[in-house]
Amino acid sequence: MQLSDFSFDLPDELIARYPLDNRSASRLLHLGADGRHHDLHFVDILELFEAGDLLVLNDTKVMKARLKGKRATGGSVELLVERIFNQTTAHCHIKASNSPKAGAELFIGPDQVPVTVTGRHENLFIVEFSQPILQVLDQYGQLPIPPYFNREAEEIDTVRYQTVFNNPEKLASVAAPTASLHFDQALLEALAAKGVNTVFVTLHVGAGTFLPVRTTDIENHIMHSEWCEVTEETALKIQETQARGNKVIAVGTTATRALESAAQACHGKIGAWTGDTQIFIYPGYQFCVVDRLITNFHLPESTLLMLVSALTSRDHVLNAYKHAVAQQYRFFSYGDAMLVDRANNAQ
């Protein structure tokens, strides 16, 4: 399967660079298992879900992971903290006029907090901070909003680029699980009142989610690694949902990847699992857990678009996207949503 198979034309004006006033006010395109699509509003999920269905949400929290600083020579640098290993050691992306070598000192923020590059790990830099990393991020960091916003992070992003149910103890992502940004507390309470159950998984989203696929044949693409956890409690709730014939609804591609990674690790059936995942889901993949997916509209030729296509079919998804463009749906992280039903003959 070729990368060009997942291309489509997207007018720039349909990229949502700011959120709507209300989280749950977005539109919803429902893509049924038969490939037919229906124009709805996000709150209509109340009518589309049944009592006993299970929503699976990613409870990670986005770090203020972008840091600006200087080299010892005065040149500007930008760090993006990808993964924290202990209080003072992290793997980072570094943007500079030329790559810093091991031993190079960098200075963060107006107070010139020193950090030292100690080596490389694949395409990332190993950086040692002179102060606790989370403290430095809290004081000097910016939220790493997506590059296609074409702007700096603003005060509105501090609230709206986080989910309402994020877990402060799971502060480790560099991008939001954006399908979950549509949920406000009132909608979650209305779903609970209807009898729709909710559980959480954790997948700490890495900056690799924004990287383009650079191989013509998509099967040659290597996914970035991300840490995730599916607890025993969550796995048990999913097993109970499946046993009574209700639907497991993954909110976002990150929740999907966490669930399917756990199932792959447990021989095709959901179970508790913690670890790094590089799972790459594209058409032909046989889903073990997810029946329905709530997701945003994704970039052309992205691994996220491939995952959505795997749940139904590439033709169904591209036809729905063509309709969404014609109807001027809002795209990407702050955009509108889709509800995608798994097709029995997904390909």
TrEMBL record:
Q: Name one GO molecular function term.
A: S-adenosylmethionine:tRNA ribosyltransferase-isomerase activity
Locations listed in the record: Cytoplasm
> Which reaction is recorded as catalysed by this protein?
7-aminomethyl-7-carbaguanosine(34) in tRNA + S-adenosyl-L-methionine = epoxyqueuosine(34) in tRNA + adenine + L-methionine + 2 H(+)
Cellular component GO terms, alphabetically? cytoplasm
Sorted keywords for this record are: Cytoplasm, Isomerase, Queuosine biosynthesis, S-adenosyl-L-methionine, Transferase
Q: Which SUPFAM superfamilies match?
A: QueA-like (SSF111337)
Q: Does the keyword S-adenosyl-L-methionine apply?
A: yes
Main localisation, per the record? cytoplasm
Q: Hey, which pathway is this one from?
A: tRNA modification; tRNA-queuosine biosynthesis
Entry annotated with the keyword Cytoplasm:
yes
The biological processes this protein is annotated with in GO are:
tRNA queuosine(34) biosynthetic process
Pfam families, sorted: Queuosine_synth
Q: What is its EC number?
A: 2.4.99.17
Quaternary state and interactors:
Monomer.
The record's similarity note reads: Belongs to the QueA family.
* Known role: Transfers and isomerizes the ribose moiety from AdoMet to the 7-aminomethyl group of 7-deazaguanine (preQ1-tRNA) to give epoxyqueuosine (oQ-tRNA).
NCBIfam families found in the cross-reference section = PRK00147.1 (NF001140), queA (TIGR00113)
Instruction: Please give the name of this protein.
Output: S-adenosylmethionine:tRNA ribosyltransferase-isomerase
Question: Which species is this record about?
Answer: Acinetobacter rudis CIP 110305
The taxonomy runs:
Bacteria, Pseudomonadati, Pseudomonadota, Gammaproteobacteria, Moraxellales
